[in-house]
Design a protein that fits this description.
Chains: A mainly alpha (294), B alpha/beta (459), C mainly alpha (278)
CATH superfamily of chain C: MetI-like
Order of helices and strands of chain C: HHHHHHHHHHHHHHH
CATH topology of chain A: MetI-like fold
Distance between the termini of chain C: 20 Å
CATH superfamily of chain A: MetI-like
Strand content of chain C: under 5%
Strand order of the largest sheet of chain A: 1-2
Largest sheet of chain C: none
Number of domains of chain A: 1
CATH topology of chain C: MetI-like fold
Number of strands of chain A: 2
Number of helices of chain A: 13
Largest sheet of chain A: 2 strands, antiparallel
Oligomer: heterotrimer
Structural class of chain C: mainly alpha
CATH class of chain A: Mainly Alpha
Shape of chain C: globular
CATH architecture of chain A: Orthogonal Bundle
Helix content of chain A: over 70%
Shape of chain A: globular
Strand content of chain A: under 5%
Number of helices of chain C: 15
Number of strands of chain C: 0
Structural class of chain A: mainly alpha
Distance between the termini of chain A: 11 Å
Helix content of chain C: 55-70%
Radius of gyration of chain C: 24 Å
Radius of gyration of chain A: 24 Å
């Protein structure tokens, strides 16, 4: 969509876009190009010498079982975070939508986790589940269940999923609530008069009308789980135990800055670049769908 | 992100003004903070020497004491010591800083990072060069060969300064032994004997009979050297970059199997990859701990129970055992890219650290090995080893027998990453998901991949 | 919604309260822990009622901290968050204005270039961006913390969509009055964007404050730590025992500014975040 009426100026528009283009070029495109270039080399950690290997880094990566595993780990992690966070948020939103008074207070109280950094969320949940002093691990021990996410991969995954999902609940809640409130009351009332029960109404009317919101949140949550959860993983498990919580984003960091394998890290960056592009295309389609120009 | 409908009016010029004001305030504020942070600058511009280290707790306190003593003893140089996390974090911080051109003067690198540092010829300034160029008196022969040998090149020239070298020993909580009905002075020289003690401890209710620190270093690397079996080919890596890992031999597998069984039985409580087990031992929760001899500093400071130090246990079935244990700890590396004045300061600091009194005190306080003969003699003459039995075990264990090709230590590239692999695989044994043989086999395969990548990057 | 009053409503309220309890539980526990002493916490279970050590813990956090005192980290975080927020808003609104209201060669090219940055989150370019920033000498500086995060495609799109909804009549009227593009921007466009800017302020402030990976890489000097990344350094990696009360006090302080911003600017924030009913 374009504007009919515009201004004519030779130099002003360039001046206006200049800051953004400059920052984008220096800090986005130049490093991205560097990543692609560096993925063909194996440098030594100090940057003193480097060996050209062509596709060697990619061969090494895809031949490495742990790297292939991190794809699976990332997928499992994202699905779990998304499903857990969205269902809980939907449940809360459905309830909040039903009451007339007090919904403002509930919303205020439910909005907090949005402001909490994923890394801080990680520290909070780490404290709760600390194998030696955590209150929830103590509680589990009373029922005979030993919690040590430092040794048990399944427990580690559970913990990072909970911490990541918890943080995202507010965001999903706000959107679901808005989506629910946007459904015309008349439609619901008509169905109620016709004798449809709550669940029937929910599945046949509410859920379909909510589907744009749901799809939008699906994409946003998956992207969140892919990238923004780095802080959670770094503070709680550092990708362990035995790399059971090493998602793709974490592996790029771990191999590059901890493992000092810069060639592998660059190759992983390139793979991520392709993945993100796919996800962005999908995301943009859904964003575009939600926006109208009035 | 979807949008909100536009509404409302606001004075627009204000936005621009506010932004400018904020920017100015920000820089003023930042400037004020910077001045505050720089602290009271010394009157004369003393050359600053940056030392990055990985100590915490009691060891960090003792290092601070040394640094302050040096700074107070002269006014030309000021050493600023910064803690950079654990050994891995410190090494990575140093490497990243080098890539960014902001490297410190001195970097403390653990023995595991030695091959990486040695391969970085343009990044590292060998210590013997720094000392020779400084004009200060430097006599390489005062240093104990067995301690410095690990950090010298093929011509015997010192590449890094062996500031804190240790070797693993066995710590015994004597009160816990007594409480379990065991004689605290009992013979614990072999793993069989230790096994008996551990059984008895658990039977009498001990929640943590045995724990270990630095599992790879103690239970695999030192184990191999102690029993004269190779850890890697080519003289454990000293002979070339094309070395391969072979620590999945019978001796090692059998040992890890035993520990795995202990873990399953609840006799061996695993606390972490590094020295996390120090905390429960010092708190009196664990009865026996294999840890670096430098764990002595913390144990002496915090343990509220009687404790003793024993030599590392060995398998009596192996004839060659016990050979000698290998070096651990760290050394101080000097990095390239500093000014001449800074190198002079570094030399001055290292000479200070080598002086007999400082070395003797450091050795006695921490449990790290003395790096000079005179420090050892001083300590002996003062009767320290008599009043503190067990504190000379580390030296005897490391220097008592002539080393073979299998027990001079390890020189493997990417070894920090290989240790992570070993740690991961061992954890699989402790939580019961892998057999010892599978874990060690898998560790050698994965470790060899890392060795090949190091070889490739350093051709 | 249509539902019988009475039981249904009570159940709903009960369910919501349960949900809120589950969500706020970690924060409550953290708050209580920040008021207890280390001895209280070493043996579980910890009490769930606040203790009396709040002042001691918060003072230790604020003035000693781990590698840097927390008050310093708060300052760094504030500077970074405000810098990112204001920087992003200013840059994006200017770009969006140019793209919507001007015709110039390469206009669509710039638009797509900005769009492409959506495909390049920092995680995709960690090592090279670090090298670029280091090469420019921007490590351990506010500029290095702020500048690489300041280009934002989403904010630009938001403003673009907003401007596209503004009636053309306004522009025509302005031109008739003899106003040039700058006047139009300042006198008409900015005021109309006020709500959006305010809403974006909240969202971007939180985004900026909660940055983790980038500050982690770019600060090697502890005096430049931000509080969100600094907390991790308080967790021990060796045989140190964590001082949990102090860590929790730091966590509370780390959460405080963004939570305050969200709660007090709630309406704006929600409106800005969610598409409202037309």
């Amino acid at each position: 969509m374009e504007k009919r009426v515009v201004f004519n100026s030779r130099w002003l528009p360039y001046l206006l876009v200049a800051p953004q283009v400059a920052v984008t070029a220096i800090f986005f495109f130049w490093p991205a190009a560097q990543a692609i270039y560096q993925s063909a080399f194996i440098p030594d950690p100090f940057g003193l010498k480097t060996q050209f290997v062509g596709f060697g880094n990619f061969e090494y990566l895809f031949g490495n079982a742990f790297y292939r595993q991190s794809f699976v780990t990332t997928a499992v992690f994202s699905v779990l975070v998304t499903v857990l966070s969205m269902s809980f948020a939907l449940w809360l939103a459905a309830m909040a939508d039903r009451i007339i008074k007090g919904s403002g207070i509930y919303r205020t109280l439910l909005i907090w986790p949005y402001a909490v950094a994923p890394a801080v969320a990680g520290v909070l949940w780490l404290f709760l589940f600390n194998p030696f002093t955590g209150i929830i691990s103590w509680l589990l021990a009373q029922y005979g269940y030993t919690w040590n996410h430092g040794l048990n991969g399944g427990q580690a995954m559970t913990l990072v999923v909970i911490a990541s999902a918890w943080k995202q609940i507010s965001y999903n809640f706000l959107f679901f609530l808005a989506g629910l409130q946007a459904i015309p009351k008349s439609v619901i009332e008509a169905a109620a008069i016709d004798g449809a029960s709550f669940w029937k109404r929910f599945w046949t009317i509410v859920f379909p009308l909510l589907s744009p919101t749901t799809f939008f949140l699906l994409v946003v949550n998956i992207i969140y789980a892919f990238f923004d959860t780095f802080g959670v993983i770094h503070t709680i498990t550092q990708g362990g135990p035995q790399q059971s919580t090493t998602i793709l984003v974490y592996k790029v960091f771990a191999d590059g800055f901890v493992g000092q394998d810069l060639g592998s890290s660059a190759a992983q960056s390139v793979v991520l670049l392709v993945l993100v592009s796919l996800l962005t295309v999908i995301q943009f389609k859904f964003i575009e769908r939600r926006v109208h120009y009035g | 992100m979807p949008h909100a409908p536009p509404s409302g009016w606001r004075s627009p010029m204000k936005i621009q003004k506010d932004v400018e004001k904020m920017a100015m305030n920000k820089s003023l504020f930042a400037g004020a903070i910077a001045v505050l942070l720089s602290g009271a600058a010394p009157a004369a511009a003393a050359t600053q020497i940056d030392l990055w280290h990985a100590f915490s707790g009691r060891l960090a306190e003792l290092l601070t004491v040394q640094v302050e003593a040096f700074n107070a003893s002269q006014s030309e140089f000021t050493v600023v010591a910064t803690a950079k996390g654990n050994y891995s974090e410190a090494l990575n911080a140093g490497i990243a800083a080098f890539r960014a051109g902001e490297q410190p003067d001195i970097l403390q690198v653990f023995e595991v990072g030695t091959a990486t540092m040695m391969a970085a010829e343009g990044a590292v300034k060998p210590v013997y060069e720094v000392l020779a160029e400084s004009g200060l008196p430097f006599d390489p022969s005062i240093y104990l060969a067995s301690v410095t040998g690990y950090y010298t090149d093929t011509e015997g020239k010192m590449l890094s300064f062996p500031y804190n070298s240790s070797t693993p020993v066995l710590y015994v909580n004597e009160d816990a032994m007594t409480a379990a009905g065991l004689d605290p002075k009992m013979d614990l020289s072999t793993w069989d004997k230790v096994g008996e003690a551990v059984d008895k401890l658990q039977a009498s209710g001990s929640k943590c009979a045995f724990t270990t620190a630095w599992q790879s270093w103690v239970q695999l690397e030192t184990l191999s050297a102690y029993h004269d079996v190779p850890f890697a080919t080519k003289d454990n890596g000293f002979g070339g970059l094309d070395t391969e890992l072979v620590f999945n031999g019978d001796a090692q597998v059998r040992h890890i199997e035993m520990l795995g069984q202990w873990a399953k039985d609840g006799k061996f409580i695993y606390s972490g990859r590094r020295n996390e087990s120090g905390a429960p031992f010092r708190a009196g929760e664990c009865a026996l701990m294999t840890e670096s001899s430098a764990g002595y500093a913390g144990v002496k400071a915090e343990a509220k129970f009687a404790f003793s130090i024993r030599p590392l246990p060995y398998w009596s079935e192996v004839d060659a055992a016990p050979l000698n244990s290998i070096i651990g700890g760290a050394s101080l590396w000097v990095l390239e890219g500093q000014t001449e004045a800074e190198y002079k300061g570094v030399a001055s600091f290292l000479t200070f650290l080598s002086s007999p009194e400082i070395q003797a005190k450091w050795h006695q306080d921490t449990g790290y090995l003395p790096i000079t003969m005179t420090a050892y003699d001083l300590t002996k003459a003062a009767g320290f080893y008599d009043t503190n039995p067990g504190t000379d075990i580390a030296i005897i264990q490391m220097t008592g027998k002539a080393p073979t090709a299998n027990s001079k230590g390890l020189r493997l590239g990417n070894f920090d990453q290989i240790r992570t692999v070993i740690d991961e695989e061992l954890e699989g044994v402790w939580n019961g998901s892998k057999s010892a043989k599978d874990a060690l086999d898998s560790a050698t395969v994965r470790g060899n991949e890392l060795l090949r990548r190091f070889e490739q990057a350093n051709r | 919604m249509v539902e019988r009053r009475g039981i249904g409503t009570w159940l709903t309220h009960a369910g919501l309260i349960l949900g809120i309890a589950l969500i706020c539980f970690p924060i409550w526990v953290a708050f209580v822990a920040s008021t207890l002493s280390q001895a209280d916490l070493v043996r579980p279970p910890m009490p769930l009622i606040p203790g009396g050590h709040a002042i001691a813990n918060y003072s230790e956090a604020l003035f000693t901290g781990a590698n840097a005192p927390v008050w310093l980290m708060l300052v760094n975080s504030m500077v970074m968050a405000l810098g990112i927020t204001i920087g992003k808003i200013v840059i994006s609104i200017l770009s969006a204005y140019a793209i919507v209201y001007f015709r110039f060669p390469f206009r669509m090219l710039f638009f797509w270039l900005i769009f492409l940055t959506l495909m390049l989150p920092v995680e995709v370019r960690i090592v090279p961006t670090y090298e670029v920033v280091a090469g420019l000498g921007l490590l351990n500086s506010y500029t290095g913390l702020i500048l690489p995060l300041v280009a934002s495609a989403t904010a630009t799109f938001l403003f673009r969509q907003l401007f596209l909804t503004i009636p053309d009549e306004l522009v025509e009227a302005a031109r008739v009055d003899g106003a040039g593009p700058v006047r139009f921007f300042i006198d008409i466009l900015l005021p109309m964007s006020r709500t959006n800017i305010a809403a974006l302020f909240v969202i971007l402030f939180i985004y900026g404050w909660n940055q983790y990976l980038w500050p982690l890489l770019v600060t090697t000097d502890p005096s430049m730590n931000t509080i969100v990344m600094g907390i991790k350094q308080m967790l021990p990696t060796g045989d140190d025992v964590a001082k949990w009360p102090v860590v929790m006090a730091t966590a509370m302080l780390a959460m405080l500014p963004p939570v305050l911003v969200v709660v007090f600017m709630q309406n704006l924030f929600v409106k800005g975040l969610v598409e409202s009913e037309k």
